Amino acid sequence: MRIVFISLFLLLSGCASLTDSPTEVEETLVHTPPVEDNTLAKPSEPVTPVFVENILPSEAEDVWHRIRIQLQFAPSTHERVQNRVDWYLKHPNYMETITKRAEPFLYYIVNEVERRSLPIELALMPLIESDFDTSAYSHKHASGLWQLTPLIAKHYGIKIGPWYDGRQDVIDATNAALDFLTYLHKRFDGNWYHAIAAYNTGEGRVARAIRNNKKQGKSTDFFHLKLPRQTRHYVPKLLAAAQLLREEQMAFPKIANQPTIDVIDMRHGVILDDKKKWAQLEVLNPGYTRFPALLDGPKHLVLRKGEIKNWQDYVANLPEMPSEQWQKYTIRRGDSLSVIAQRHSITVSQLKSFNQLKSSRIRAGDTLMLPILADKQIEYKVKSGDSLWRIARHFDVTVSKIKQWNSLSKDVLRIGDKLTIFLAAP
User: Fold this and answer.
1) Catalytic residue at 24?
2) Contact criterion met (CB below 8 Å) for 381 and 335
3) How far is CA 385 from each of CA 51, 394, 401, rounded to the nearest angstrom?
4) CA angle at 43 for the pair 249 and 152, rounded to the nearest 5°
């Protein structure tokens, strides 16, 4: 029954991108059966491999080249696609920014798309969804490279909590996004354009648009469907990016066609005592919202290639945890880890990780550190003249962290807004 209940919500919840979209009216939660339409068995346009060069993907010069030689969606001359191509061409520095952000993750994403035998164009979706910004938030509370909503993320097993948001983890988020797209492709009988549109706006809305066109005797081709403005331009953005690659109309700075990261098992949480030394971890593991506390995350950690041995040595000789920035608790007679954890709204696992405990045995009189910042969570009220940059500079934190802590999708602030800021104790 729970699975059925979740599927009802999935009809309307699609993954929201960062571009503007009209306000959605609450709709009746009715599960729409698969649309029986022979036109759905065929894509909006031919979807057959268009191999530009007769070489293997592993032989490509770089990752963008690897994508280009495997493009499958046929070129489109539709006005919406060409308008987006023109936009890209008028912003020649755009791909430089995208490439810089994508460099740590694109090879992994491409490899996962290939492993599942999915169209390589899907590897370009983070470009459309988030501009490859791992910390991106939308007004619909979608987050991460793939802009997964909380409902979709949790349905596909992604953990979201006060210390960790798996939508920003490239491994879990990519798996969930590709699982969702695979489901939508089957749901719409092999039509990738409909599936991609449903990823953006929800499968129920796309199914209704198809059904309405059928009733009116109209084509169910994607470009003929009545969909929200954002979604009407969503698929064309993807096709435009693919066209730029295929026809080499724009420079895509090279990304080495080789693995850039390693994914290793992580059995328990870790608190880093040297934030500067491991600063790259924050870039590669942006799901940890209170870095340098690596708590409540997945059972893996993403490292730069060649860093496994250094990390293993560090964990094996983990120094005592820095205590000045965390609250302390003196164990009383009758206490247990579960009692202490419940009292402070944390988990036993967090408590053991924070104190490097190998067992649950504790002794009255000993001191435990709690994974709670030492009186340094503050509320800041936005004043006239404030900006995220000014506030971040004042508190010596980053703009992206302020946006992450407060689920902000834009940089715009209003006087009187309240922001939560987390500060490390001096």
Assistant:
1) no
2) no
3) 54, 13, 20
4) 90
Distance CA 361, CA 90 (A): 64
Q: Is 177 helix (H, G, I), strand (E, B) or coil?
A: helix
Is the CB of residue 107 less than 8 Å from the CB of residue 302? no
Q: How far apart are CA 409 and CA 18, in angstroms?
A: 8
Residue spans of beta strands (DSSP E) within 296-401: 300-304, 326-330, 367-373, 377-381
- What are the E-state strand segments in 228-281? 261-265, 270-271
**Residue carrying the six token digits 């009988």:** 189
The torsion angle over the Cα atoms of residues 353, 354, 355 and 356, rounded to 10 degrees, is 40
In whole angstroms, give the CA distance from residue 74 to residue 79. Answer: 15
Which structure tokens are listed for 202? Answer: 């929800």
Token output for 109: 């994403």
Catalytic residue among 26, 45, 59, 129: 129
Backbone angles phi, psi at 67, to 5 degrees: -65, -45
Instruction: Write out the chain's pLDDT in tens, 426 residues.
Output: 444 444 444 444 556 555 443 333 323 223 333 333 333 334 444 455 444 568 899 999 999 999 999 999 999 999 999 999 999 999 989 999 999 999 999 999 999 999 999 999 999 999 999 999 988 888 778 899 999 999 999 999 999 877 789 999 999 999 999 999 999 999 999 999 999 999 999 999 999 999 999 999 999 999 999 999 999 999 999 999 999 999 999 899 999 999 999 999 987 778 787 778 888 999 999 998 878 888 778 889 999 999 999 999 988 887 665 555 567 788 888 899 999 888 877 888 878 877 778 888 898 888 887 876 554 667 888 887 788 888 888 877 888 778 877 777 777 888 888 888 876 654
**Do residues 340 and 329 touch, judged by C-beta distance below 8 A?**
yes
Cβ distance 64 to 252 under 8 Å?
yes
Helix (H, G, I), strand (E, B) or coil at 419: strand
- Check if the beta carbon of residue 263 is closer than 8 Å to that of residue 302: yes
